[in-house]
Amino acid sequence: RHLSLLVAEEEEYINSSSWRDQKRHFFVLTEAGKPVYSRHGSEDKLSSVMGVMLALVSCVHDRNDKIRSITAGDHKFVFLIKIPLILVAVCSTPESITQITVYLKYIYNKIVSIVTLKQLDRIYAKQKNFDLRRLLTGTDKFLDHLCTSMDTGPEYLLGAFQCLPLAGNIRDLVSQALQLSKTNDLAFALLLTSGKTVSYCRLKEHNLHSSDLQILINLITASSSFHAGESWLPICLPHFNPQGFLHAHISYLDDDFQTCLLLLSADVNSFFTLSEAKKRVMVKLNKHDCLPILKLASEKGMYNVGKIGLPDLRHFIYKSKHQSQFTAPEFSSPYHDVHQQERLFGLYQHLHGKIHNPAIPLKLLFEVSDEETMLAWVASGFELYVAFSPLVTKGQAISSVDRLLRWIKQREDELFMIRPLVF
Amino acid sequence: MNGKVNIRKTRLSSSISSEFDSIFKVMVVGDSGVGKTCLLVRYKDGTFLGGNFISTVGIDFKNKTLVIEGKKIKLQIWDTAGQERFRSMTHSFFRDCSAILLVYDICNLQSFTNVTNWISDVKQYASPDVTLVLIGNKCDCTTSERKVKLQEGARLAKSYDIVFLETSAKTGVNVDLAFDAVARELHKKSLTPADYIGRDMSASQSFNLKQYVQSEKERTTCC
By its UniProt entry, which PROSITE patterns does this protein fall under (chain B) (predicted)? Predict the structure, then answer.
């Protein structure tokens, strides 16, 4: 009786409109069918749904194949199989299957960053039915935060990060300050203000991959736990090394928790060494009064698109491929409310999906609709996605884009981190 | 006990020795959600972190300076995350730690049951002469919320011969006492025969952690 009650409860839950009407579902389960995470609702109540997912995966697997996606009406079911984990997305949104797969990879990497691939493999080699939630206690909010920011964050779509706009010379000063943190086994030093990258410093032979950087930003922006003094925690950066942990020394440098310094070392015993390194960085930053400047820059936020002086231009995203960085203005009319912003982001996703379609990749895309005219352009060094007012002609759009590119070029130093320093 | 205790006392370089006479590492451990961070914030800032539960990620580090018998003592306090995945990291910090405050939640029986696991971890990884204090937190709770009796905590502590007290980070009951008592104990343990020369250290020498806590502690709800 108890079991049937549970099943009924589960059924009621997944038939509720509050659950069914969610546009993006993400699920994580183990290959033994144990629920690990669900973006909406409690994964406990979803064991039957996850059972169906596992059945689908197994059916295709039995034919020596791998299930990738199912399309049913407006819904796309996308699978990412990373044994021992299975990740599934169910979306009724404009993203392409390729894009959704990228989102699933972010979720997977986030989990790896918490437990490492080595630990994951070791546990499941021994115990196939291990409940991974035991090791993920307290991390739901990080995964939730990641999923929410993927809803409207170009960083995930583009695989690029956004810098805090800042005068080039100030950014250089910050980079030099970060360089002072150099100690043995230090891999990365990173400074964030309001969750945006100000600068980072790295080992010569290791680049900081934008997806790893995103994991760190997600960590800082999702929890206020780091407001307390200095924190120390193991974190795995899957692009840097999925097998092992780095050890992060995390501290806020100001009283209102705007600017945060992260020092990542391979040495588990280096807390005090890094604590000293932090002091060196602080001395340099204070000498040039950088912290108030950073605070001001973050309050100023992004630039307004009106500043560029192109009448039909409403919004754009520019990605510098070489730097893996992007820039975009703040939202202005008609994208004032969240609903409009989500709609615009949907258009960007649509353009991005179409221009990067693996079957027929495009270079230039021009689409006219009732509400706006959209242009996408993929060149050797950049990608550009632009929203114009609907009545712009093709000729006007092209000439506007030329002027926009010149405007960005002139402000390169301010919008991008051009020269990441090495230790 | 006498002054000849093998305690790890960090002797400071001459440049900063004027700031502190000694530094001790103190850890706060226990299951997730028992109120470790709240105890620490109450002790350090005298406030209570109400509202949402913010679980500690990794280990947080704080300093607290106090004066005992004219000596400036700095406690380096490590506030740990209670979750299982941080266990091995916590163990690695046990090694050179002078005192451990082991916290459970008197409204959460599981956290009390796990105390024995924590103690065996301490025995395995920490120095044998580490000062261990058992703390039953949230003693501001109502009788119906309470799941672990005062006597049960006391009995468990007695069986391991460790000091026990109930605290409330919410009201502040016994919080300062817990940390101050630990500081006094560490101070006593760190005294070497040289420290006694020409000074009357009888007060320090005769310090007894259990008696001190017993005499100073505020009575908590008994049932």
Answer: RAB (PS51419), RAS (PS51421), RHO (PS51420)
